[in-house]
Amino acid sequence: MMKRIVINIVLISLIIGGCTSGFYSLAVLPHAITGTGPILRSAHYLADLLQQDTEPDTQATPVPDIKVTETPVSSSFLTHDSFAGWKWMQPFQVINTPVLLYHHISDEPKFRNYAVSIKDFSDQMSALKARGYETVTISSLVNAIKFGAPLPERPVVITFDDGTLDVYQNAYPVMQALGFVGTFYLVGNYIDSPDYVSTEQVKNLLEAGWEIGSHSMTHADLSKTMDLNRELYGSKEYLEKAFNVPINTIAYPFGMVNPQVFEKTIDYGYSGASGLGLSWEHSYSSVYYLNRIEIKYGQSLEAFNELMPW
Q: What's the rounded mean pLDDT across residues 233-240?
């Protein structure tokens, strides 16, 4: 019953909260919930969505029954050992924190549609530092939303999708020099493949204070896959065994979800999830589709600064 309430809250936020906070992403990504493009323009959208029968996913990868006990994630994911100058956030309040999304950090032309140049990325990180931003991980943000936790005066979450090698080679040194940490969403089957990070490189990032999360097992569109067990649960289990760390969140590939994806995400023990969006505001209603602002190739530093709340 509680799970259905959470899913309903999430779906309501997708519609009525989209223009201010929560799931603004649907204003720019109208098909993030499968097949709802025309329905989004209907006042009866929510009733139609919740009453429709969803296709059962094929149980190609059987998993045991999972009973999730909601507990705060470890504070070890926070940026600093000392919280001096940080403020305590009360649970269930709206929290303003920009969550940035990057894919490639590279000058390679072949990545241009999903890349930010090395210089631009360095300039962006330096600008954040100069303006007083401090990095936290996605788990830190989720923890603050759900249970209350300390956050910096100007928090920012820097996320990277897919697990590409250029993030380790080009983004990691820049962030390390500034005392920044990131959240790296890994595709299970991509690790140790050409152009992607190795197991040892991921371990180095973890030792430096980074967090890792799931980006599914094969980068499948979760709203269409016939094997949510493998993509959601299998990837979580694989990463936890490979790196001996909890996998608290998932980033939905392509930002694509449906009610069944939300249900399985909760069932399989994720404490939160990342999607797409333009808002800085996050709340309990958006914790399973946190807004992430994608940084584009060739974006000027002025345009980048305008995306930030402070």
A: 98
Q: Which residue do the tokens 């000392």 mark? A: 82
Place of tokens 């939905």: 252
Parallel/antiparallel/unpaired status of strands 149-151 and 87-89: antiparallel
Closest CA relative to residue 162, chosen from 101, 108, 204, 209: 101
Band of residue 242 on the pLDDT scale cut at 50, 70, 90: very high
pLDDT (average), residues 250-254: 98
Looking only at the bridges linking them, the beta strands covering 281-282 and 95-96 are: antiparallel
Q: Looking only at Cα atoms, what is the longest distance across the chain?
A: 52
Q: How many whole angstroms from its chain centre is CA 135? A: 14
What single letter denotes the amino acid at residue 217? M
Coil/strand/helix, residue 3:
helix
Task: Tell me the residue length of the chain.
Answer: 310
Using one digit for the tens of pLDDT, what is the confidence trace for 181-210? 999 999 999 999 999 999 999 999 999 999
- One DSSP character per residue, 180-201 reads ---EEEE-GGGTTSTTB--HHH
Q: Looking at the predicted structure, is the pLDDT value of residue 64 above 80? A: no
DSSP 22: S
Buried b (16+ CB within 10 A) or exposed e, 138-152: bbbbbbbbbbebbbb
| Residue 74 identity (one-letter amino acid) | S
Sequence-distant (≥ 6) Cβ neighbours of residue 114 within 8 angstroms = 103, 104, 297
DSSP 283: -
Kindly indicate the confidence band of residue 44, based on its pLDDT and cuts at 50, 70 and 90: very low
Quickly list DSSP for 198-241: -HHHHHHHHHTT-EEEE--SS---TTT-S-HIIIIIIHHHHHHH
